[in-house]
Amino acid sequence: MNAYLNLENLTVGYGAHAVIEDIGLQVKKGEILTLIGANGAGKSTILKTIIKQLPPLKGAVMIEKKGIADYSFSELSKTMAVVLTERIRPELMTCREVVAMGRYPYTGRLGLLGKEDEEKVAGAMRAVHAEEVADKDFNATSDGQKQRVLLARALCQEPELLILDEPTSFLDIRYKLELLSILRNMARQKGITVVMSLHEIDLAMKISDRVVCVKGDRIFCEGSPEEVLDEGVIRSLYGIEGGHFDPLFGSLELPRAEGRPEVLVLSDSGRGIPIYRRLQKEGRPFAAAVVYRNDQDYQVARYLASEIVTEEPFRYISDENYEKALSLLDECKEVYDAGLSIGECNARMAKLRQEAADRGKLS
Ligand code: ATP
Known about the structure:
By secondary structure, the chain is an alpha/beta fold. Helix content is 37%, strand content 25%. The chain binds adenosine-5'-triphosphate.
């Protein structure tokens, strides 16, 4: 691979204490690589080593075949921009002035901005929608606003390599989406290489070309999100015992209510999902029947229902499945009709609903 950034046999840590050992990673130009892993796993330690804030305990960080140890501070600041979680507290600086610091590598020691620099500062602030705080004292802004201002500072630095530590942690959902779109566009259109850590696995899956899972004292696994992030890996990575992570949608489900089902839910087209979630919150075990395997309800019922009867897509409900559903109906005290769309294949659902009504169980 024609690597832009190369972590060669790298061991990172603090003093004599190695946190992650023997990292071998190559990142191509324009690639987005995301580190994921539990709190304290070592993501920030890797990022701090890449930006030369920490010396490697072993091995080297190479950018375009040159070790970062051989980069001067000025060369490095034209090559990489950094957005860390550690908060800066500049004295009496407006947000515009903080963003303008991103131009310092180009403006000389006095930091006098030319017209082009001013435009780049304004452009970066526009990109992250930070214009409304431009003249505000940086220290008097919210965490999310600070995070956007620091991203603008990094953008107007025009780096080849962008390093971000949990860049979405303080952002609301709109700005999370915008940040990720900005990063994607920068990588695709300008060939900027992005290495970051994220806690949101669903976002990591959507934005990353490659993910690197950090656990114990090693890189646990790495590859494209589709290759790497299945439920087993996520469970193991974060030590999850209860609950579920759905890799297809990147969503989390709480553990199901245990025990024999008290309620039978009849549903299709995803209409059962709000009812499943409500029953789960109330701690009431429930059954879902008969759920087609291509229905949205199936995606959630398989995690939350204590019993589930499923049917293959576009098939008539079999005698066997109908009988199973009927026996659950007998066992449950209540039956919820989440709003069924009855067609030819699932005509037996109408029969089940009638059976529930006849037994006085239909809610
Ligand atoms: P989080 O998701 O919580 O931000 P992280 O994956 O970024 O975690 P690191 O901050 O890299 O984790 O921490 C890795 C390990 O190094 C932890 O055990 C932490 O306690 C330790 N550590 C962090 N900073 C220092 C330091 N300055 N000196 C010594 N040990 C440190």
